[in-house]
Design brief:
496 residues; 2 domains; 7-stranded mixed β-sheet; 10% strand; globular
Length: 496
């Protein structure tokens, strides 16, 4: 009974942690809905007045971006801002032919009078954080706008963001990500779905009540003094953006989130690229939990509620670990339930935690409705999207749990960039991209085994107990089977 007891305890703890996270999301939903009713009366610079127009540096940290550099540079060159107060730094750590191509393109742009500089290093120490820090040493701007290589800001982007820095306490202005290739595939649709939830529900829900949010690594602007005051860019985690965000807010800098300013970007179209991105984000989140937890708890400048939301924010990626634990233990729990009749009251209580899924369903519906509109047809479409998202997110749970465990236990790894493709429509192909990794990881093999494991879970529903089976967990195991099956098959085909 020791093994059974251990399984029950671990399963229960994971379920409770997921429930607490769901309650936090529900609170963010209330915050979000409340924020929609408020008018933004923030003080703003008048950019029509040259005396109020600050000097801005745009930083473009890039590394081996052969397929998107031309698109990026041409887009950035169209930014509308006084030329005498705008500098562009291309922070280029590239080691392939894209470096020379970029150098030539920059030379052409310089002939138009654009102040654009090609900044390179002899090494890639601290990766993106190191490049940003190096560029900051010579940056002319009082404010630093940052864009990754796959982002395409609108012409008036600086005019929509810079004015908010009139409030001297604001250290960061962050904008919402858009998706130029959202409808390319199921994979891009579920990525967009997840990101939309973060950039509406979570960012607005936290920011509107003064809780900590994060600069998202791109499509935002920093006050240079804020970066320096918070300790500058550091490369000891894989999510340098989250790290600096928390250090800045612990120093009492305010962040401004602009939901209505959308910055289009390209979503990874191949699952191996999405896996790379997910691994970095989730491991970096866990690393920042280790780095920031006690600083957050011991801070005397912030409220208890902000601390709670901050802790849960830093534990975002760890929810994948809890989901994976619940998934794996659900099959032994099915057998325990039907073997020990005296435990039935416990299982009745545990069934209450299904409400976590309904909370997520409600929260994400408000997000979906805000972006895509309401109505019965939209709701039906949303149900399909939610179930698809939930299944595939669970299919990523093992891969992301490995990342989380590495982060919590302090295993260091390199910053692996997400390959970019310059894909905008279904007719564009990703095959032949030189940056794709061809080696099959051990994680994919484990995911294949998990497909069979959850197929066994569905089979178990028919044979457990003496009452003709138990189908309470069958829908859950079906979603896990489909989610892991999708991730496994797509991971195999992306190597072909």
């Amino acid at each position: 009974m020791i093994l059974e007891t251990t399984i029950i305890v671990v399963y229960s703890i994971a379920l409770i942690l997921i429930f607490l996270y769901a309650l936090a999301q529900l609170n963010l939903l209330f915050n979000y809905l409340s924020a929609q009713k408020k008018e933004d009366n923030s003080p703003k610079f008048n950019l029509n007045n040259p005396d109020e127009t600050p000097y801005v540096t745009i930083q473009l940290p890039v590394y081996n971006e052969l397929y998107v550099m031309e698109r990026l540079l041409n887009n950035i060159a169209k930014i509308e801002y006084p030329r005498n107060k705008l500098e562009i730094q291309v922070l280029d750590d590239s080691t392939d032919e894209s470096f020379e191509n970029t150098k030539k393109h920059i030379a052409q742009l310089q002939k138009t009078g654009l102040d654009i500089q090609h900044v390179s290093r002899d090494n890639r120490i601290n990766f993106k954080a190191g490049a940003l820090k190096e560029g900051l040493k010579v940056a002319k701007g009082k404010f630093i706008a940052i864009f990754d290589a796959d982002f395409l800001p609108q012409k008036d982007w600086l005019k929509s963001t810079i004015p908010y820095f009139k409030d001297s306490e604001i250290g960061v202005v962050q904008t919402r990500w858009g998706h130029i290739n959202k409808n390319y595939s199921i994979l891009t649709k579920i990525q967009a779905f997840a990101l939309d939830a973060h950039f509406t529900l979570e960012q607005v829900g936290r920011n509107s009540k003064g809780h900590f949010i994060n600069f998202n690594g791109t499509a935002g602007v920093w006050r240079k003094d804020c970066i320096i005051d918070a300790g500058n860019w550091q490369g000891d985690t894989l999510t340098e953006d989250l790290d600096l965000s928390y250090r800045a807010q612990l120093k009492n800098w305010k962040f401004k989130y602009l939901e209505n300013v959308v910055t289009p970007a390209e979503l990874p179209v191949v699952i191996s690229a999405a896996r790379t991105q997910q691994f970095r984000w989730n491991k970096g989140g866990a690393e920042n939990f280790r780095k920031m937890l006690f600083k957050l708890i011991l801070s005397k400048n912030i409220s208890i509620k902000t601390k709670i939301h901050g802790i849960l924010h830093l534990l975002n990626s760890t929810m994948f670990l809890n989901i994976f634990i619940v998934a794996v233990l659900s099959i032994p729990m099915l057998y325990i339930k039907n073997e020990y009749a005296h435990l039935k009251p416990y299982f009745y209580v545990m069934s209450f935690f299904v409400i976590s899924t309904f909370i997520f369903f409600i929260c994400y519906w408000f997000m979906y409705k805000q972006i895509y509109g309401g109505g019965f047809k939209k709701f039906v479409k949303y149900i399909g999207m939610f179930l698809t998202f939930f299944s595939i997110a669970m299919g990523f749970s093992f891969h992301n749990s490995v990342a989380v465990m590495e982060g919590h236990f302090g295993k260091r790894s390199d910053f692996i960039r997400t390959p970019k493709f310059n894909i905008n429509s279904i007719s564009d192909s990703w095959k032949g991209n030189k940056y794709l990794r061809k080696k099959l990881s051990l994680n994919v093999i484990v995911e294949g085994i998990l497909v069979l494991y959850f197929a066994f879970g569905m089979y178990s529903a028919f044979i457990v107990g003496d009452q003709g089976g138990d189908f309470g967990l069958f829908p859950f195991h079906l979603m896990l089977f489909l989610g892991f099956g999708y991730v496994f098959i797509k991971s195999l085909t992306s190597k072909m």
